[in-house]
Amino acid sequence: MIIDNVKVYTPEKKFVKGGIILDGKTIKKVYTEKETPDLRENEVINGNGSYAIPGLIDLHFHGCKGDDFCDASKEAIARIAEYEASIGVTAIAPATMTLPIKELEHVLSVAAEYRRETEDYRKADLVGVNMEGPFISHVKKGAQDERNILPCNVEICEKFLKASDGLVKFIGIAPEESGNAIDFIEQMKNKVNISLAHTNADYDTAMAACKAGANHAVHLYNAMPAFSHRAPGTVGAVFDSKDVMAEIICDSIHIHPATVRATFQMMGADRMILISDSMRATGMPDGQYTLGGLDVKVVGKLATLVLDGAIAGSATNLMDCMRTVVKKMDIPLETAVACATINPAKSLGISDQYGSIEAGKKAHIVLLDSGLELQAVIKDGKRI
User: Which are the catalytic amino acids?
Assistant: First the structure.
């Protein structure tokens, strides 16, 4: 297959006029408009000047189209993966909620089994799992069920890694909740990425966790102390820790556009990862749904707990979040694409195959028109 007459997004985070030659499931070559490829005996897609970007990677979301990753069903994962691929998200690392240990082990073992059995170009690749709980804060629990919150524990974490057959890529912790948090980080940091998640840690505590090896922040600003001039909290510690990557939800509900712009300036775009944090209501009508066993009311893009009105994930997919970042938050398209492709691929440790349009990498390519509306999704060298 040849994708011709497009503006190709390069690893240098620029758009170059040209095209892409595919060889089965992989990218064979990227060419510029000055080159003339042989279009004979090839399936050719005329992009008509579209943007050609890598397939997006969502490393933090819970579900969509009525299904949740924690439903612990291979059929549910398949439906989630099919929806995500259809909107241009071609690789996924769903997030778990704070559930009982045995339930989480079951969720992870089902996911591992699904990955071993499933290879389908119509479905997003399951490339990881992001464990948002149970090692979190009671104070900053958000939409998590506090009955299942635990202090971080190496033995339990090892069980999660084993159940997932290596699929777990991130373990979230609230370092202030346990006297052994630093020891936990030092023991686990070479086996899994350690995230600061749903934490009430002050600057010093969060900074100590980062210095010990925590390298990721779950949905920056949300479910953590406010960033202020005298108490910079977890956000300030993340800023001062230059090797820590930061997720950010850009659905126009969770974070004000001015804060998003300021954060990109403050952190630097190379450290920002766009996530959707979407729940099962995404792609569904308004109504009442569940998240982590708790009832959630969804009206438009706003999802809130029925119990106390707390924001409960989002009802916006990652492609729409990326559009929002560009159209409503004034982040350049080149930057937004990197934060939804290159950066998450690096954090997940899969940048050798995913996240950019380069020879030898997976043929996961999305075409967008000038208004950023979806024109085509090519996955594993086939058009969905």
Answer: 277
116 is in an annotated binding site: no
pLDDT per position as a tens digit, 13-38: 999 999 999 999 999 999 998 887 77
Question: What are the boundaries of each domain within the chain?
Answer: 2-52+367-383, 56-353
Establish whether 313 is an annotated binding residue: yes
- The annotation status of 258 as a binding-site residue, yes or no, is no
**What does pTM read for this prediction?**
0.96
CA-wise closest residue to 169 among 99, 109, 216, 238: 216
Let me know: does 124 contact 81? Beta carbons within 8 Å: yes
Alpha-carbon radius of gyration of the chain? 20
Find the angle CA(122)-CA(14)-CA(373) to the nearest 5 degrees: 45
For the 56-353 domain, the top CATH level (class) is alpha beta
CA-angle at 282, arms to 279 and 287, nearest 5°: 90
Sheet holding 2-9, edge to edge: 26-32, 15-23, 2-9, 44-54, 365-368, 374-379, 382-383
Looking at domain 2-52+367-383, its CATH class is mainly beta
